[in-house]
Amino acid sequence: MQLHPIVALGSTTAIVLAPAYALWLYHKISYGSFTNYIPRIYQDITTKEVQLLLPLLILTMWLGINPNILFNDISLPILGILANLPVMGIRSFSTKLNINWTFISKVLLWVLSFLLLCFIYFLFINIVYCSGDMPQSSTFEVIQSSNSSNISAFLHGTTGSNDSGVTIVHSIDLSRGVVTDVSGGFMDNVNNQINQISEVVQDSVHAVQDMARDTANQVETSSSAGRTVSAVVGSVVAANAAANLAATVFAVPAGLGLAAVSAGAGLTVLAIGLNGENIIENVAQTFGTADPTSPASDSNPWLGD
Amino acid sequence: MVGILYDRYHTRTIKYYRGLVMIMPGFSVLFLLFTFANIAVPGTSGFISEFLTF
After folding, report:
1. The whole model's pTM is what?
2. Sign, CA torsion A213/A170/A41/A257
3. What is the strand order of the sheet A178-181 is part of?
4. ipTM of the complex
5. What is the mean pLDDT of each run of 10 residues along chain A (305 residues)?
6. Residues in chain B closer than 8 A to A45 (CB atoms)
7. Which of the residues A16, A26, A127 would you substitute to probe the B interface, choosing the one with the greatest number of B C-beta atoms within 10 Å?
8. Domain layout of chain B by residue ranges
């Protein structure tokens, strides 16, 4: 080691970079608001898994605190190996090939330092701009169906997570049919079925529906009267008015797991307007795969072909 | 540790994971301890191995 600067450079770089990556990994998967891309499973680490991992942890700590339990056994053989080792150092090698290792190691040091600085800079940018409540968009499309349970799947997108699974649909892009969800809310559980929608929910939906229909009629210049889904509006204009109402009326049936609340000032609320009396029969909701790399569909599922 | 996550969420893509502290606090604590062991904080065996490197 002391005779070979390249090995020293490599090992030192690994020693520096490996903790950086480990900490970056821990930061990525642990902190921030909960992701939308995986199902929200409330299952912490089980006793069986703790029993699996605890011996590993104890052995790690034990060897770290008292490494002599290992060194007492291996020191003598290691000394024997080191004493009999032929010196294959850098000096004999370099005199044979006449290579200026000092220069090469300096260049390598500069290159590695530059790469390390780039990495740290990237890490900094990543932490500053990609942590916290960065808006994550998840696309979904509204399809036409008469299945009476799917709409309740939409309305109860937070099924099973009554207290903390708050769904806030932020805004909707009418040109592309993309709904952006900034709340860190949960847009999965599509197939979950809720059989009952209370009167309060229906009233609140109708109230938002009226506001949405007004705005949607302005947007929807092309006639799509035949379509069942007539208006889906999340524009800021409608939402500013609807936000207050929606925050109130949606907070009431929060016991059902439905909450569309504009908590912050910047949040907009998606309002869904529907034709027909029975909203349950009108709209089925299918959420997409929420793949961040998947392109949004060009067709507008709400406003006709 | 990754097996525990994969057992629940069936993906190993780091991009899909975020905010596990809220859902799995015990896992996060254990994962932090193993991360410490990985980055060779003194008191873990990784520190001994890296100490022997020099």
Report:
1. 0.41
2. negative
3. A136-137, A178-181, A171-173
4. 0.94
5. 76 90 93 86 86 91 89 86 67 58 83 86 67 45 40 35 42 40 40 42 60 59 40 41 48 38 35 38 40 47 50
6. 4, 24, 26-27, 30
7. A26
8. 2-53
